[in-house]
């Protein structure tokens, strides 16, 4: 990231420059491809009161430029407040980037599982469960007895997810 620090009506000392450079470095944790950052610090005196303005401009690849202006009596406080606001904006952008990537609802993972062979297992066939209709336990037991499945997953009348299964001794178990 290219960093530019400018002082208007203010002499920039080395501690101020290094403080602003460190502030820019904290913005790198969001991995958002920030091309350049510019900070303009200016002294402002209105009606006999001194104050400082800090303006940060962040140029990002494939995004609009983010500009944040902050005023305060203390220069370091103005820089800190501006960086906090920039962090919030960059965190939102980072979260958008993550949620857009994860929009496939697991279809890609299920497809990859179906294609990959698993050691010791001939073939895994993904199935969709029919959990939309609540069943009595007796109905689920009949369904399991009439099929060749080892277990059956269902929602009972109280909307609890239950599993009924065949035991090795020929009886049935219920979770």
Automatic annotation (TrEMBL):
Q: Provide the GO MF annotations for this entry.
A: ribosomal small subunit binding
Q: Where is the Sigma 54 modulation/S30EA ribosomal protein C-terminal domain?
A: 122-174
GO terms for biological process, alphabetical:
negative regulation of translational elongation
Question: Per the record's keyword annotation, is Transferase included, yes or no?
Answer: no
Pfam families under this entry? Ribosom_S30AE_C, Ribosomal_S30AE
Taken from the UniProt entry, a GO cellular component term is: cytosolic small ribosomal subunit
The question of whether Zinc is a record keyword is answered with no
Q: What is the protein name for this chain?
A: Ribosome hibernation promoting factor
């Amino acid at each position: 990231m290219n960093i530019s620090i400018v002082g208007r009506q203010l002499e920039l000392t080395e501690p101020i420059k290094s403080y602003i450079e460190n502030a820019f470095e904290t913005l790198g944790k969001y991995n958002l491809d920030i091309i350049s950052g510019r900070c303009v610090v200016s002294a402002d005196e209105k009606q006999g009161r001194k104050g400082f303005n800090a303006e940060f401009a962040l140029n990002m690849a494939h995004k609009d430029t983010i500009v944040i202006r902050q005023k305060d009596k203390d220069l370091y406080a103005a820089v800190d407040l501006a960086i906090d606001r920039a962090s919030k904006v960059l965190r939102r952008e980072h979260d958008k980037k993550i949620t857009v990537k994860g929009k496939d609802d697991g279809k890609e993972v299920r497809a990859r599982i179906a294609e990959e062979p698993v050691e010791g297992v001939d073939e895994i066939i993904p199935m969709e469960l029919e959990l939309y209709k609540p069943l009595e336990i007796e109905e689920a037991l009949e369904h399991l007895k009439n099929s060749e499945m080892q277990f059956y997953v269902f929602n009972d009348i109280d909307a609890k997810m239950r599993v009924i299964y065949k035991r090795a001794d020929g009886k049935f178990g219920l979770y």
